[in-house]
């Protein structure tokens, strides 16, 4: 009798476990988006051949895990600081079901002073 009750509860337990894993993925993508934004802003703020927005975009995209994709944009750029925004798509636990929008984070860094 107890095994039949367990079989009846099994789908609910699996659903709760999948929901927990999905929420963990959302949190991890948020952390990765923050890392990508900080890396992109820090690299783009550097002067010289290793800096600039193109180098920042490459660095930000390379800063996330290999199985995630980061999209880097620069919505605000002034003479003294640069802001990078990173967007990471949240993978779904259930194939074909996408219920979360991409996670977005931004970071602002001061530009490197090149005056002698």
Summarize this, please?
By secondary structure, this protein is α+β, with helices and mostly antiparallel strands. The chain contains two helices and three strands; from the N terminus they run H-H-E-E-E.
Give the key terms.
116 residues; alpha+beta; 3-stranded antiparallel β-sheet; 2 helices; 46% helix; 21% strand; rod-shaped; TadE-like_dom
General description of the model:
The protein has 116 residues and is an alpha+beta fold. It has one domain. Helix content is 46%, strand content 21%. The chain is built from two helices and three strands; from the N terminus they run H-H-E-E-E. It has a three-stranded antiparallel sheet. A hairpin with a 3-residue loop joins strand 1 and strand 2. Helix 1 runs antiparallel to helix 2. It is rod-shaped and about 85 Å long. The N and C termini lie far apart (83 Å). The mean pLDDT is 89.
């Amino acid at each position: 009798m107890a095994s039949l009750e367990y079989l009846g509860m099994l789908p609910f337990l699996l659903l709760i476990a999948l929901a927990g894993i999905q929420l963990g993925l959302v949190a991890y993508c948020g952390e990765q988006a923050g890392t990508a934004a900080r890396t992109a802003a820090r690299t783009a703020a550097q002067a010289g051949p290793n800096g600039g927005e193109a180098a920042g975009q490459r660095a930000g995209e390379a800063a996330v895990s290999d199985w995630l994709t980061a999209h880097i944009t620069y919505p605000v750029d002034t003479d003294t600081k640069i802001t990078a925004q990173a967007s990471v798509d949240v993978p779904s636990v259930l194939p074909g079901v996408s219920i979360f929008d991409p996670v977005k984070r931004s970071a602002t860094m001061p530009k490197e002073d090149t005056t002698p």
